[in-house]
Amino acid sequence: MINRIGVVGAGLMGHGIAEAFAIGGKDVAIYETDVGRRAGVKDVIAEELKLLEREGMIPKGSIPEIVARLHVYDDLKKAMADREYVIEAAPEIIDLKRKILADLDAACPKDAILASNTSSLALSEMARDLPVERKKRTIVNHWYNPAHIMPLVEISFFGDTSAETFEAAKALYLGIGKQPAKVLKDIPGLLANRIQQGVAREVFSLIEMGAAEPEDIDRALKFGPAFRYATTGQLEIADFGGLDIWSTVGGNLLAVMDNSRDANRLLKEKVKEGKLGVKTGEGFFKYPPAEKAAITERFMVKLIRQLKASKDYV
Ligand SMILES: NC(=O)c1ccc[n+]([C@@H]2O[C@H](COP(=O)([O-])OP(=O)(O)OC[C@H]3O[C@@H](n4cnc5c(N)ncnc54)[C@H](O)[C@@H]3O)[C@@H](O)[C@H]2O)c1
Q1: Nearest alpha carbon, ligand 1 atom 7
Q2: Same domain for 21 and 122?
Q3: Domain shared by 216 and 171, yes or no
Q4: I need a labelling partner for 258 at 20 to 30 A (CA). Which of 44, 99, 106, 152 fits?
Q5: pLDDT for 27-83, tens place per residue?
Q6: Does residue 189 form part of some domain?
Q7: Closest C-alpha to 157, from 178, 187, 128
Q8: Is residue 202 located within the same domain as residue 161?
Q9: Mutate to test the pocket of ligand 1, among 44, 114, 119, 299 (most ligand atoms within 8 A of CB)
């Protein structure tokens, strides 16, 4: 069983990944280059753990013990010398990822597995310069944000990654309560982001054509398709509805739906106007500064309760 984890980068994703492993009982070494992030990461995690504790997702009084499993380093060699599984969550820049993987190859034990949380870079490109033996132990593990709550981790099984490495990764994630999805092709966006963009394209297009108010479009999604998606996949839903029906309705609707190959025009306009969503106080909806913290907490609480409910049907 893998117990000693390394995480490179303690930003949005890295801190959540470290947190998820620590909750799962693993010993976690975090390497981060930014002084401020290094100093603050344990506090950020402890704060998030309070919400999990309040919602009954971790035992009462367990926060100090979980935080004690996290060790923060400013020296990669010291951090990774005895790690069995190391995941990098550094910025999405190919040269940086290549350099980090090369440094990890030198710093980690020979049999350690190296993973990347890349959202869009090809494994073959990132691992290009690694020795053959290490390539067999290098893999993509794509987590979903917020990583300490969202169950999905997409795991690559393509390129030079060995079956042994894949199985070890899968067992590791199952052991900490995650839902690993095996991806067989090195395609941009892997599975979940491609599915999500397909839905988002139509949603943005419906807004742009004025088909409904934003609240009603999100209501149609939340209490329609997404309500089922939380428990039942698209392929299962197609089987329940009947493939003949899906074939007929698809034939009729797809011909009139958005098929653009670029980000939506309205979305780009909003970006130009500085309306970026919660972080700037306005996107499709408004987020007054005084309410931002409460709105963000509510979003987290909803996900935690969904996670709790999902324990009954996985
Ligand atoms: N943001 C998301 O929703 C999301 C989801 C899934 C995957 N990802 C992927 O995860 C990775 C990280 O994304 P993020 O959103 O957490 O970015 P981020 O900018 O929040 O965090 C990156 C962290 O890496 C640190 N860093 C930079 N260079 C480093 C180095 N050489 N060594 C160690 N640390 C270093 C930075 O200081 C920062 O704290 C990217 O590959 C991204 O594509 C992001």
Answers
A1: 119
A2: yes
A3: no
A4: 152
A5: 999 999 999 999 999 999 999 999 999 999 999 999 999 999 999 999 999 999 999
A6: no
A7: 187
A8: no
A9: 119
